[in-house]
């Protein structure tokens, strides 16, 4: 179990490390708003990395990147978007913030409230 946790954490850190390097070329010359990326790591049913609140303006692109130690399903309420979580690998859910409000983002099988998405005009 300890080794599995370490592997998941390492995967999460790799994502974090890769983020800064890839950000500039990915967003250069794109539409008015750059995609904002938020990284989460879930181990043993608990969030060990990631913000409690994700804030966006309508029209922005939001990426929620989750690395879980077990297979699960990510669900963004309100937008009703889901993404399959593969054990030990980062999964990315990309959405365009079009609906203002506060929405819960859950990891379904273990019932974890991962974060909240707040969208403002
Ligand atoms: Cu849900």
UniProtKB/TrEMBL annotation:
Gene3D superfamilies: Cupredoxins - blue copper proteins. It comes from the Bacteria. Residues 1-17 form the signal peptide. Keywords: Signal. InterPro entries: Cupredoxin. This is EfeO-type cupredoxin-like domain-containing protein. It comes from Spongiactinospora gelatinilytica.
């Amino acid at each position: 179990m300890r080794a599995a946790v370490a592997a998941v954490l390492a995967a999460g850190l790799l994502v974090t490390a890769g983020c800064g390097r890839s950000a500039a070329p990915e967003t250069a010359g794109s539409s008015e708003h750059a995609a904002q990326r938020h990284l989460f790591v879930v181990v043993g049913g608990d969030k060990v990395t990631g913000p409690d609140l994700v804030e966006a303006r309508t029209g922005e692109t939001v990426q929620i990147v989750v690395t879980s130690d077990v297979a699960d399903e990510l669900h963004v309420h309100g937008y009703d978007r889901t993404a399959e979580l593969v054990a030990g690998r980062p999964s990315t859910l990309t959405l365009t913030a079009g609906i203002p409000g506060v929405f819960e983002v859950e990891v379904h099988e273990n019932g974890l409230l991962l974060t909240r998405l707040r969208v403002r005009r």
